[in-house]
Amino acid sequence: MTEVEQGQNSFDHKTFLKNLTKQPGVYQMYDADGQILYVGKAKNLKNRVSSYFQKTGLPIKTMALVKRIASIEITVMPTEAEALVLEHNLIKSQKPPFNVVLRDDKSFPYIFLSEGEKHPRLSFYRGNKKKKGRYFGPYPNAGAVRESLNFLQKMFGVRQCEDSVYKNRSRPCLLYQIGRCSGPCVEAVTPEEYSFDIENTALFLEGKSDQLYETLNKAMEAASQSLEFERAAEYRDKIVALRHVQASQIVEAGQGNIDTLACVSEKGLVCVHVLYIRQGRIIGSKSYQPKDRLEHQEGEVLSAYISHTYLEEGKMDIPSTIITSHDIEDAQALSAAVERQTGKQVKITTNVRTYRAKWVAMALEAARQNLKNQLNNKQTLLQRFEALQDALKAEDMPRRIECFDISHSSGEKTVASCVVFDHSGARKSDYRRFNIDDITAGDDYAAMEQAITRRYSRLQREEQQLPDILLIDGGKGQLGVARKVMTELGIDEIMLVGVAKGTTRKAGFETLVHEDGHEQVLAGDNVALHLIQQIRDEAHRFAVTGHKQRRDKARKTSTLESIPGVGPKRRRELLKYFGGLQEVMNAGIEDLAKVPGISKKMAEEVYSVLHSE
Prior knowledge:
Layout: E1 4-6, E2 9-11, H1 13-18, E3 25-30, E4 36-42, H2 45-50, H3 60-67, E5 71-76, H4 80-94, E6 110-114, E7 122-125, E8 133-136, H5 142-156, H6 163-167, H7 174-177, H8 191-205, H9 209-225, H10 229-247, E9 258-266, E10 269-278, E11 281-288, H11 298-310, E12 321-324, H12 331-342, E13 347-349, H13 354-392, E14 400-409, E15 412-422, E16 425-426, E17 432-435, H14 444-461, E18 469-472, H15 476-489, E19 495-500, E20 511-514, E21 519-520, H16 527-556, H17 568-578, H18 581-586, H19 589-593, H20 600-610
Parallel strand pairs: 9-12, 12-13, 14-18, 18-19
Antiparallel strand pairs: 1-2, 3-4, 3-5, 6-7, 6-8, 9-10, 10-11, 14-15, 15-16, 15-17, 19-20, 20-21
């Protein structure tokens, strides 16, 4: 590869590389339209960027990226760690298509123990840590938090009810009756006893098992010496329960917070599995399936995951150690970048033994199983696409299918949906809804025409990818509307297929309507029909959801809100004076003028708007 072609343009990489610095920094690759393609960081910019233009040995997908490069911009940084931070920020803001894409999920959940109250509360918490109290976590998912809260409720009886419930109780609730709460709302527990339960709860959540056992043992002995044998038995049962919980965990004594990361890749798909170890206990795990268009090595994917996850200050707690299944070339720079960005030190290591090696093996096996499931699902989807090609007698296997559906309630607030499927399944980022206005209520043909026109005129204008097959939920009439729009737009390469309900209107009896007029009924066990049903049902779901949201929003809006000059205060006065909207509608101008704040002129305006239909 001596020259990189870009349409009629070419990127003179030889001249560019000749003058490129060897310092650390960030490089940004752009196409001929100025659109970002890829963002990367390098310890040595010249060596790293040169690797993209070597004559042999480039992966096919990397070659596809290089062919699109029209320009490269660089930013020199003092250190590799600072380059990592800049790379992270650029990927987050620009979302380049050839980088490893890790979707931003919701923030991690915590267990929250309030402070500054007579009887502190233990609760599930997600979000910014603004409340005064102690936060324990993060946990990988809500289920892990609720499981821990359930155990703590049985063990220590610290209240978990809302403050509004706690402050308004006059007698103990059912949880007190079954021994799951100590009843602080009705003073069924002394302040000293409740504080003791709070301290024990905190010790458990902090992983200070030895200190907790010592505290409970002393309490058991004191109760025995005071001849309070029932209370001593309660402490004994708590110790036994704690021992049982600890025995079920893989524990490495003396270790703190550790995240174990494993990565497996196969056939263009990637899975990253994370084990979360907090205070020496595995509290849960989570799998991620990042999109990787360049098929990076496992170590590179893990590096991208660490950068994405731990460089975001406040997103989650930073563990003291991160164990990875594969070597990461820039591990030292990543550690420095995390410390620079968050102020917390983290050690990234690969070669581990004993319990840590077991954690890595567990994470790798989970990643393999999840990837296997993902591959099986993808293989099933490909089989369905192949069967659809055969059923429709298409020359090539379709790569992208779009489907439209219309939803309304007797013509009210019509919404059209467009869903998109490819060989990876539903592409929800490409879904679109269209609020349909300016048509006769209930005219599905006009609604379909407006939606398809808006969709494909925009795709043409923005030179976006068109589908190979367009499914229309309907028969010959709907199909005719779609063909009319496509003809007007000059689009003739899309295969149009109507999906009409059969005579019984039951699933499995759909009729496919083709443009030449002939109808086709596929067998109920045909996987091509299953794919069509899946896409059609998804379009229907998406349309119905959008319609309900639009309809409910309109119905929650008071008619009074559309009257100029009638703000919240006047609306309140009108409703308060007449007792409801219907009474306001029935009132005359003279009656409206009697409302405080409503002049005669304003009353005439209100009356005119309310009786304009």
